[in-house]
Design goal:
GO molecular function, one term: unfolded protein binding
Number of strands: 0
Oligomer: single chain
Structural class: mainly alpha
GO biological process, one term: protein folding
Number of helices: 4
Keywords: Chaperone, Coiled coil
Order of helices and strands: HHHH
Organism: marine metagenome
Number of domains: 1
Protein name: Nucleotide exchange factor GrpE
Length: about 130
């Protein structure tokens, strides 16, 4: 037996003894019922508010995930483009540096062949042939 049922049975016994207390008891019971209904409504509103907040949080998190995924995709595309450009133009940079090196070696050889001191050295022609 619940506490409310026990209290109601006690109140009914008291009511049978006193007619005025019966009216008071009915008022108290009605007030309790009204209060219970208000509490249930408040709990319902609280649960709705919590659901709305949770829904908003879920939407915010979904948006963050979508933004992060889009950012990752953009980075991947940018890196692929940079890699392709590096392969494409990397050969040009190598050729440019190689040409500069070859030009410097040719200038050095010309400089050595025009220098009198190197011409007098007997090992100089052997160095130039190599």
């Amino acid at each position: 037996m619940k506490v409310e049922e026990k209290n109601e049975s006690d109140l009914k016994q008291d009511q049978s003894n006193n007619p005025q207390s019966k009216k008071d008891t009915d008022v108290v019971i009605e007030k309790d019922k009204i209060q219970d209904e208000k509490n249930k409504e408040a709990e319902g509103l609280e649960s709705k508010n919590k659901e709305e907040l949770n829904g908003k949080k879920v939407k915010e998190l979904e948006e963050k995930i979508l933004r992060t995924l889009a950012e990752m995709e953009n980075r991947r595309r940018r890196f692929e483009k940079e890699r392709d450009e590096a392969f494409e133009f990397g050969g040009f940079a190598f050729a440019k540096e190689s040409l500069a090196l070859i030009d410097n070696l040719e200038r050095a050889r010309t400089s050595f062949t025009n220098n009198k001191k190197f011409k007098e050295n007997k090992d100089f022609p052997i160095i130039l042939e190599a």
